[in-house]
Write a structure and sequence with these properties.
- A hairpin with a 4-residue loop joins strand 17 and strand 18 (about 145-150).
- The chain has one domain.
- The protein has a 5-stranded parallel β-sheet with strand order 2-6-10-13-15, with no helix packed on it. The chain has a 5-stranded parallel β-sheet with strand order 3-7-11-14-16, with no helix packed on it. A 4-stranded parallel β-sheet has the order 1-5-9-12, with no helix packed on it.
- The protein has strands at about 5, 10-15, 20, 25, 30-35, 40, 45, 50-55, 60, 65-70, 70-75, 85, 90-95, 100, 115-120, 120, 140, 145-150.
- By secondary structure, the protein is mainly beta.
- The protein binds calcium ion (CA) (2 copies).
- One calcium ion binds next to loops.
């Protein structure tokens, strides 16, 4: 059984500012979204979960929709979708999210339906505006610290999620309740990402 499993088909889940770690299941080691449900996963850290069939961190069932925004998925494992497993006819929109250091294909590509990924770090790459395939330079993931080192490529390279129609979520703070966005690279807004100074991942680097 996944750590977070809400039974209600046609139900709605808001999972915000939480950590889910070290769980296992057949589908959705960390979070499982059932059919016809609507999930929002925001400012959350999903690590070290395992799914034996699909969706190591998160699994989206057929006819469910999920938005994963400003979250960090690392250390998860599954043969299909190590970070995020997508069933056919599932709609997943991923923005400002780090998917790094998972074991297996980062996101699977189902025959029908697909994930839409923007302004995210996806290991081994994923098509979409603003996506990167670079080490996010976590502070100390072994100790569970998924903050970003100075100079991390995730700093100020995200998007203001409220400006994306398919996301439409106003993210005003981070996993640690620090304000978003902040000028973490000290270069002002506008030069990277969509110019909004939003970081990618669950933890925003605080401006000096
Ligand atoms: Ca920033
Ligand atoms: Ca900046």
């Amino acid at each position: 059984m996944a750590a977070v499993f809400f039974f209600a088909a046609y139900g709605s889940l808001l999972f915000e500012g939480n950590r889910v770690a070290g769980n296992s299941a057949t589908y959705g080691g960390g979070i499982y979204t059932p059919g016809y449900s609507n999930a929002r996963i925001i400012n959350s850290i999903v690590t070290d979960n395992e799914a034996t069939t699909a969706g190591g961190g998160v699994y989206g069932s057929s006819y469910s929709s999920a938005r994963v925004v400003n979250s960090t998925l690392s250390g998860n494992a599954s043969p299909v979708g190590a970070a995020i497993g997508v069933s056919s006819y599932c709609g997943v929109v991923i923005a400002n999210t780090i998917m790094w250091g998972n074991t297996g294909q980062t996101i699977n590509r189902p025959r029908y339906g697909a994930a839409s990924v923007i302004y995210s770090i996806a290991q081994n790459g994923y098509p979409g505006m603003g996506n990167l395939d670079v080490d996010p330079d976590f502070n100390n993931p072994i100790a569970g610290n998924y903050g970003l080192q100075s100079g991390s490529p995730a700093i100020d390279t995200g998007v203001d999620p409220q400006t994306i129609v398919a996301v439409n979520i106003d993210v005003v703070d981070d996993f640690l309740d620090n304000m978003r966005s902040q000028d973490g690279d000290g270069l002002g807004a506008g030069s990277t990402g969509d110019g909004s100074d939003y970081d990618i991942g669950a933890i925003e680097v605080v401006a000096n």
